[in-house]
Structures are given as C-alpha cells and as structure tokens.
Amino acid sequence: MANQIILSSCNFLIMHFPKLKGKIWLLRCNLFFALSLFSFFTVAQQRDGLNDAIVEILIEELHLEDQKIYDEFIVTTLHPKDKTKAIVIIPIINEINEKDDSYILDAYILVANSLTGKLQHSTFVKSFTKSDAISLSKINIDTSTYRIAENRDAFAVETHHRTLSQPNPYASTSTALFMAEGDELKMILEKYLIMEFTGEWDLNCKGESTQITKVIKETQRKTNDYTELGVTKVITMRKTYLEGEDCKVEVEKDSIQQIMIFKDGKYKTLQ
After folding, report:
1. Dihedral sign computed on CA atoms, order 92, 43, 141, 185
2. What residues have CB less than 8 Å from 2, skipping those under 6 apart?
3. Fewer beta carbons within 10 Å, N or C terminal of the chain?
4. pTM more than 0.90
C-alpha cells in the first residue's frame, strides 16, 4: 500500500512536469515521499524503507551491475555525527570458487545525503574481504567515530569471520578506518585485527582457548597533526578440565598498551 502511494505520487509529478524524468529522479522522488510517508510508521520500518531507496539511487548513479552485487552484505546506517549523511557499503563480487564456496569481495564504501541519496564521498576497495574455510559472517559499520584531526572524523567498518568447527572453533573481527577528503574516502587504517578467538576442546569439557581483543581509543597526543590512537590489547587464556564430575575453568589474563600514529597517510602501530 505504501509503495503504491509513493509510486503514484511520483508518476503524477512526472505526468504534469515532463522535465522531471529519468530513473535517478524517480528514485529520488520515491525517497522523498518515503521520508514523508514513513514518518507515520515505526523507526525500524522507516530505516528499512529509506535504506533501500538510498542503495537503489547509489547503484544507479555508479552504474553497477546487479549480478555482481553481493546483496547479503549490503550495509547502510546514518552517520553517527551527522544524521543528514548515510554511510553505505555495497560489496561487489570479485571472484567466486563454486567448488569450495569461497569468494572474494571488493567493496564500495560510500557517504551519501540521507535525504536525497546524492553521493558525497566514495572509495572502491579491491579485495576488501573474503570468505573461505573461515567464512565471512557479517559486515557492519561501527557507530562510534574517531576525531583524528581538527574538524576531521573517521568511521570504522568491521568484517567478521568464523568457522563452523565445534572441536576447533575460530572467530575474528577486523576493522578499517575511513576519512573523507574532498569527494573521496581515504582508508587510513587497513584490516586491523581487533578480535581473534582460537580454541580446541573435546566437545565435553576438556579444552583450551585464547581470545585477543583490542580496544582503540583517541588520546590527547598528536603526531603530524593527527591524533595518536591508543590500543588496549587484552589476551585471555582459558583452560577447562574435568575434576571428578565437575568441569573446572582456569583463566589467565594479560594486557598490553600500544600506540598507533598517523604516518604516510595511514595509521601504524609503533613497534
């Protein structure tokens, strides 16, 4: 019903104003009426409707082929610091191996006007992520931002991987930071591992696991006019074993502080 109202409204305008034509204009018209109409629905419904419209506008504007888009991992969200902007990730199939169901994805990382869908900043990342024996489970946009320089914020895109093996579980999360520069987006931190879990157990009790997590935070220090980023690395080791009929757990933790500085256009960890 809502879609029919939106489409009828846009067709009415095109019929009475012939200069308003073209697929891009029609998509933007749909988005405009979606903003008006969906304000009467719930926030969740509104978000879904607007995201679809913005993605369609960007796909048309970038002349992307539908069959090359990996729809499952398309992600959109409003910019955490500016709700008039939407961050959009459109994965593109680079390579697929049907024998083992592995694939490599490129990605368009985009910032668009959340009201009109007009593209503002963009980058294309070759071989952005992959899925093989360690499968890609999710791509998401981190809702936190980093003030990396005066009047400059960076946002993070995370990729999550895991195995389906129960005796030998594995999971990881990597992050990449992007900063607007002119009409481009610059990737200023590349595929930085912020979580890794490895383990081995007998499916009953006995086993060992190690989990490494890294939390990135801004510091008050600057290098080359860019904020230094502090990293708290926590290593957690667990060992489980049977004692009589009870499954006991031993846990050891260690933490390391690291610093990342901005050099040659990228953030790098000081050794």
Report:
1. positive
2. 34, 37, 38, 41, 49
3. C
4. no
Tokens 């490895």 belong to residue? 198
Token reading at 240:
């489980």
Q: Which amino acid is at 242?
A: L
User: Helices 23-37 and 43-61 sit at what angle, rounded to 10 degrees?
Assistant: 170
β-strand partners of 194: none
Under 8 Å between Cβ of 74 and 55:
yes
Query: Is there a contact between 235 and 255 (Cβ–Cβ < 8 Å)?
Result: yes
DSSP helix/strand/coil, 200: strand
- What proportions of the chain, in percent to the nearest 5, are helix, strand and coil? 20, 60, 20
Residue found by looking up tokens 């989990």 in the block: 211
CB 263 within 8 A of CB 271: no
> What would the pLDDT profile of 125-171 be if each residue is shown by its tens digit?
999 999 999 999 999 999 889 999 998 999 999 999 999 888 999 99
- Residues 108 and 91: their CA atoms lie apart, in Å, by 6
